[in-house]
Amino acid sequence: MLDMRTSCERCTKALPMDSEGAVICSYECTFCTECAAGPLQGRCPNCRGELVRRPRRIAKGAQDTRQ
Q1: What is the pLDDT of residue 53?
Q2: DSSP labels for 16-47?
Q3: Long-range contacts of range 1-10, CB-CB < 8 Å, 24 or more positions apart?
Q4: Which of 21, 32, 34, 35 could bond to 10 as cystine, CB 3.0-4.6 Å?
Q5: How many CB atoms lie within 10 A of CB 48?
Q6: Phi then psi for 53, rounded to 5 degrees?
Q7: What residues form DSSP beta bridges with 32?
Q8: CA-CA distance, 61 to 55, in Å (whole number)?
Q9: pLDDT score at 26
């Protein structure tokens, strides 16, 4: 299961599970989009892997309201 870290590892910005502003590498290092696009230049500083948008997780019990 994906480890949903709740803050950017660089600037500590809050990144809740439903955040669209989170990116991860293949090792699940987590960063905000601002850090990823700016100082990190799209690469994880830990493994040098590509940073991609993290999937969002909906809390258990939340109902789908789309029609």
Answers
A1: 96
A2: -TT-SSEEE-TT--EEEHHHHHTTTTTB-TTT
A3: 2/28, 2/54, 2/55, 2/57, 3/28, 4/54, 4/57, 5/30, 8/32, 8/35, 10/35, 10/39, 10/40, 10/45
A4: 35
A5: 8
A6: -60, 130
A7: 22
A8: 18
A9: 94
Contacts of 10 (CB under 8 A, 6+ apart): 31, 32, 35, 39, 40, 45
Length of the chain: 67
**Model's pTM, two decimal places?**
0.82
pLDDT tens digit string along 9-59? 999 999 999 999 999 999 999 999 999 999 999 999 999 999 999 998 776
At 38, the amino acid letter reads G
- pLDDT confidence of residue 2: 81
